[in-house]
Amino acid sequence: MDTPAKVENCYFRFQCNRDWKDLFEIQQNPGIRYCGECDHLVYLCSRAELQEHARKGHCVALPVEADAHLRRHTVGMVAPPVPGEYR
Fold first, then answer.
1. pLDDT tens digits, 43-87
2. CA 84/CA 21 separation, integer angstroms
3. What are the residue boundaries of the structural domains of the chain, listed by start?
4. I need a labelling partner for 81 at 20 to 30 A (CA). Which of 3, 37, 51, 60 fits?
5. Residues in CB range of 42: below 8 A, 6 or more apart
6. Which helix (H) or strand (E) holds 55?
7. Confidence of residue 13 (pLDDT cuts 50, 70, 90)
8. Who's near 37: CB < 8 A, 6+ residues apart?
9. What is the pTM of this model?
10. 3-class SS of residue 85
């Protein structure tokens, strides 16, 4: 089993193969989009906001480093780490 990706003291429970640009826009809120594949809202967030979204169990789109190959965002559901994990 693959180890979930860890970022900013959180980890991705699920990492999607979609990018922010692939999700359906919500006119009332440009920082939230809809994923028709998994039927979840996806929140565009910064690393500073990541732990709050993890506590709420949200799916997020997190900008990736400039050298990433063709993807602009990592999309998936984040969660805070279980105590004792990811040392």
1. 999 888 888 998 898 999 988 765 555 557 788 888 876 665 544
2. 36
3. 6-79
4. 37
5. 20, 23, 32, 33, 34, 35, 58, 59, 60, 61, 75
6. helix 50-56
7. confident
8. 16, 18
9. 0.77
10. coil
